[in-house]
Design goal:
Layout (H helix, E strand, L loop, with lengths): L2 H6 L3 H12 L2 H15 L1 H4 L6 H19 L8 H13 L3 H23 L7 H50 L5 H11 L6 E8 L11 H7 L4 E5 L3 E8 L4 H9 L6 E4 L3 E2 L4 H13 L7 E4 L4 H8 L1 H16 L3 H16 L4 H8 L3 H15 L6 H16 L16
Parallel strand pairs: 4-6
Antiparallel strand pairs: 1-3, 1-4, 1-5, 2-3
């Protein structure tokens, strides 16, 4: 029941008279309220959010507004309750504790009403009922106003914190000439260690504004790993703090729980200041997977793929230079020879395993391999040729749309 409803019920005169009597003993009322709050609530007793002097001023203001309303205001003045709610939200005090302190104050008012209506031989039961209804209706109005104001201010705090956190994460990934003091500030806000061990993760977004790794920060926190994340139009990137060598596996397992698109991970690195460089490696690891594929690759798992992915134009030129004779063959011949060469690499150069994978006789595979070496003029026993062929196949796998293009023309020095 709201306070205005109580007034319409004809209870205002008796309540006004009682409130006027209580108001004459305001200092005693403030002391009693302070005593109850400090006795019952450690957060205020220990001055975690406000000093005792600040608390007393707040108690005085709220009691004064409450008694003024009870003395005869048609509409309860909830401005002080709103001010208290906002102030406590900005100070970080828990809402239940704030409401409890508020109720303690109005309960002290009610206790005074009980004493006043019990005086003399003729106890004023009707007056007590009226006062009780008025006080608790006012409690509801004040609590509603305080809660609304508190939540609005708390939302502002959250948004401000998120904006600052987002800016600091962006600065961390951008790198640049951050001073040591700035880095310490970033680490403090993000709850990361400046000198710890980390990995950076880059996950491809399925579409604009959608996280490929929803609630990943919470899931990592539950596994006792601090992290900080940022969503960009094409990536969700995060830096994860590793408590011990086994933590990297825990992170990988969490990332692989939900099938998403491509995820790249940097090598483990030390020092928060190296995050931007690690992000580059995570991007390279992601790019080492074919577009449209799903999975996670850490940079150290395939340094060759990472090298190829980090230099797309040079890698495409390498692929055309090394594989051009096969790329120029008719479609069926080209596809068969390229598939055979890839299978041979995947099977660690074993003709037997290659034949099993391609469902061919080993002699057929040997014939195709001889044709490949003849077409390319390269040997499958020379380490240098094998390295170039492997890099060229990687580039063709990562950038398949370029396989049909004419060979790049060499640039001539002027």
């Amino acid at each position: 029941m709201h306070y205005q409803t109580v007034l319409r019920d004809g209870l205002a005169p008796v309540v006004s008279a009682l409130a006027a009597d209580v108001d004459t003993a305001m200092p005693e009322l403030i002391d009693a309220t302070m005593h109850q709050i400090l006795e019952q609530m450690p957060v205020y007793r220990d001055e975690r959010f406000v000093t005792h002097a600040e608390l007393r001023n707040s108690v005085r203001a709220n009691l004064d507004y409450a008694l003024r309303t009870l003395r005869g205001e048609d509409v309860p003045d909830v401005s002080q309750a709103r001010a208290t709610g906002r102030a406590r939200a900005l100070q970080g005090a828990p809402l239940p504790e704030v409401l409890r302190a508020f109720r303690i104050g109005l309960t002290e008012v009610w206790h005074r009403f009980v004493l006043l209506t019990a005086r003399g031989e003729n106890q004023d039961l009707a007056g007590l009922v009226a006062a009780t209804a008025a006080v608790w209706a006012l409690v509801d109005d004040y609590a509603e106003a305080l809660t609304s104001s508190y939540r609005d201010a708390a939302a502002e705090v959250v948004v401000a914190h998120q904006n600052r956190r987002s800016a600091l994460v962006e600065a961390l990934f951008a790198g640049g000439a951050a001073t040591e003091g700035t880095l310490w500030d970033i680490a403090r806000v993000l709850e990361l260690s400046v000198d710890g061990s980390f990995v950076v993760v880059a996950a491809e977004t399925p579409r604009l504004g959608h996280e490929p790794l929803p609630k990943i920060e919470l899931r990592l926190r539950e596994a006792q790993h601090a992290s900080a994340w940022r969503l960009t139009p094409d990536l969700q990137v995060g830096v994860v703090s590793l408590r011990d060598p086994s933590a990297c596996k825990v992170t990988v397992d969490l990332l692989r729980e939900t099938p998403v698109g491509r995820i790249g991970m940097s090598p483990v690195f030390s020092g928060l200041g190296n995050t931007s460089r690690a992000l580059h490696f995570a991007r390279v690891a992601l790019s080492s997977m074919a577009p449209g594929s799903t999975g996670l690759v850490q940079f150290t798992e395939s340094p060759l793929a990472g090298l190829v992915a980090s230099a797309p134009e040079a890698s495409v030129q390498l692929a055309h230079h090394v594989l051009r004779p096969i790329l120029d063959l008719p479609g069926d011949d080209r596809n068969v020879l390229l598939l055979t060469l890839r299978a041979w690499f995947d099977c660690q150069g074993s003709t037997k395993l290659t034949s099993e994978r391609m469902f061919c006789h080993p002699n057929t595979i040997r014939h195709r391999l001889r044709r490949i070496t003849d077409e390319l003029g390269r040997s499958l026993t020379d380490p240098a040729d094998i390295a170039e062929l492997g890099a060229a196949l990687r580039a063709l796998h990562l950038f398949p749309d370029t396989s049909h293009l004419p060979a790049p023309r060499p640039t001539r020095a002027s």
